[in-house]
Here is the input.
Amino acid sequence: RRRGCHRPDLPMNAEIRKGEDMEDNLGRRCRELFDSGCYCAESVVIAVAERQGLPTGLAMRMATGFCGGISRTGGLCGALTGGIMALGMADGRGSAADDHRPLYGKVARFIAEFEQRLGSTSCSDLLGCDISTAEGAREFASSDLEARVCAGITEAAGTILETLLPPEATG
Here is the structure.
């Protein structure tokens, strides 16, 4: 049902120059990517990769397994794990000698804000069904939770990230 995830005018492995043709609001861009066929984690990581001029195809491949509460296991929300990856992409260590603590603090703030705004960090809790089971997967599809719930959560993750990313990574 969902289409492939990439900007139609941009090859999957293309790089975008920093600040080029980007939305002003990261949450809005995450939602656009989600609505175009990307999944939760992919949308968040790709939006930040675009802002940093990094390859979006690589970002998508890196994030795919985290979608659906980590590969449809109902675990941590993919928009949350995508946001954690995006924070690392923007502000993670560049070498083993670098200090991890600044990023860990940002990740902790991201998780806390996500849970405060949305009520949980669990995909199953946020959806109200366990998509790792056949019954939950049917409910997910028949209730259109992807459009009704996941799209908004993905947008919210991007909005929260906007406040945590370094200025050079926000467009």
Remarks:
- The chain is about 60% helix and 0% strand.
- Residues 1-23 have pLDDT under 50 and may be disordered.
